[in-house]
Amino acid sequence: MVVTNAIRLGGDEFNEAIIKHVRSVHNLIIGEQTAERLKIEIGNASPDKTIEKVEIKGTDAITGLPRRLEIDSVEVRDALHDPITQIVEEIKTTLGRTPPELAADIVERGIVMTGGGSLLKGLDKLIGKETGVPVILAESPLDCVALGAGKYFEYARGFDNTRSIYDNLNG
């Protein structure tokens, strides 16, 4: 590992941003499942040719009564603006700290996106546009962490204890 940077920002924070937006703009309280559905069905990181709409149900924050609301993909994109901007800025910062030799490899091979948040429509295109680097979505983005942990476990089984694994990996 040459350069590392971790931010705890992804799908759950996207959901939270949608929940906060719907409450502050429409005075409608929605739950995690509704926010997740909006994110998956019409969520997007960059402008799309078509504007999609979805009807949602929640609790009116003023009256406490159930209420319906139609929300469109433009509004969901606006709700996701802040967490998406944070992600893009962190990628730029990390790329800026990358040694030139490795940066050349990244420009040639691209960035591989993993995790559920990487499935947000248009996020790969936005990151590519903002960084000038090709962006590739991993083959199984939801499974990458589990598969990597499994490979590490298999590798580690050949050692007596954690200390020898660490010593072997770090020379």
- The radius of gyration computed from the alpha-carbon positions, rounded to a whole number of angstroms, is 20 Å
End-to-end CA span:
13 Å
Structural class: alpha+beta
CATH architecture of the domain at 11-79: Alpha-Beta Complex
| CATH fold field value of the domain at 11-79 | Actin, Chain A, domain 4
**Range of helix content:** 40-55%
Strand order of the largest sheet: 1-2-3
Strand content range: 5-15%
- What does the average pLDDT come to? 88
Number of distinct helices: 7
Q: What top-tier CATH class of the domain at 11-79 fits best? A: Alpha Beta
The profile of the biggest β sheet is: 3 strands, antiparallel
Order of helices and strands: HEHEEHHEHEHH
User: Would you identify the regions where 5 or more consecutive residues have pLDDT less than 50?
Assistant: none
Number of strands: 5
What overall form do the CA principal axes indicate? globular
- At the fourth CATH level, what is the homologous superfamily of the domain at 11-79? ATPase, substrate binding domain, subdomain 4
Structure in words:
With 171 residues, the chain is of the alpha+beta class. It has a domain of 69 residues: ATPase, substrate binding domain, subdomain 4 (Actin, Chain A, domain 4, Alpha-Beta Complex), CATH 3.90.640. Helix content is 53%, strand content 13%. It is built from seven helices and five strands, in the order H-E-H-E-E-H-H-E-H-E-H-H. The strands form two sheets. A three-stranded antiparallel β-sheet has the order 1-2-3. Strand 2 and strand 3 form a beta hairpin. Helix 1 packs across helix 2, helix 1 packs across helix 3 and helix 3 crosses helix 5. The longest helix has 24 residues. The chain is globular, with a radius of gyration of 20 Å. The relative contact order is 0.13. The model has no long low-confidence stretch (mean pLDDT 88).
